[in-house]
Amino acid sequence: MLRRGLATLLALVCLAQAADAQTRPARLPIPRTLAVHLKADAGQGSDIPDVEVEEIRAAVTMERKDLNGDGVPELFVEGTRFCGTNCERWIYRQLGVGGYSLLYHDWGTGETVLPERAHGWPLITEYTHMSCCEGGTHLYRFDGRHYAWRSSVEQATRDDGTDSIIYRVALTPSRAERPRSLVLDPAHAGGGLLVSARYDLCARGSAASCGVPVLLLQSARLPAGRVCVDVHAMDGNRWEYKPPPGPGWCGVTAPAGGPRGEPQRVLELRPSPRDWTALGFGESLEMRGPGLPGELSLDGRVALGAFVSHLDEVYTLPPSPR
Q1: N or C: which end of the chain has fewer CB within 10 A?
Q2: 16-35 exposure pattern, b = at least 16 Cβ within 10 A, e = fewer
Q3: CA-CA distance, 266 to 270, in Å (whole number)?
Q4: Can you tell me the distance from the alpha carbon of 281 to that of 212, in angstroms, rounded to the nearest whole number?
């Protein structure tokens, strides 16, 4: 199902990119009033707040494209001179003379407008270039006010020319039988270990329905019965973290089917908010215990980091201690 859905998404992206290349409008300087809005709207990590309005105007470019088909073009702004391969990007809706509403903000190589629509506005993807052979595709959906993140898929091209998924993290739609969930699909973490995660968001108006983030470790090497995990996260020689003793890193394994149907076991853990922060920011991450590999692979750490970065948007996490 995941591969079929990803193939459909990538096919839509390719078709949209081809159509967009044929109708791409000219890049223009931005009005001063928009530069003022841009400076006010720029978030943490942006270069925009550190420069004056006229410097912003000299450093960004703009395109006009009508997204929702109402005859009034939206303003696609790119931080052309603030970036290399991945540029900071914004989409604004013009509300009148000197008035603007921010619809979208991200970093990447460029937005792709998809045929599918929500609330009358098309879905958008942004591709982030990571290296010669790796990059991520991020999907955004209009929620009635602005474009909200919905999923990220990072892929790598292997030496044999085939593509493989490093991780997929997504915010599932709400359904009558279950709330919306932030989900990390199983990702390879080395030593035969798969890591995945899930957080069920509160149902609207019902605090009692709030869940806690769950970490799942799956491997054919996990033993039956109770297993406790010793975790150690590090960032060079400057910072390290070991969770205090507690029930969050212990559980009882249960049978599970592996990727090819082989028998495996899965261990469900409930790390504390501080533990999740460490999982997301550790440059080196070890998980030791029966059947566990010790140091996790880079792919496993990247997958957990992607989940934690979006978990921080819907669940209260302490700041990174780094």
Answers
A1: N
A2: beeeeeeeeeeeeebeeebb
A3: 13
A4: 19
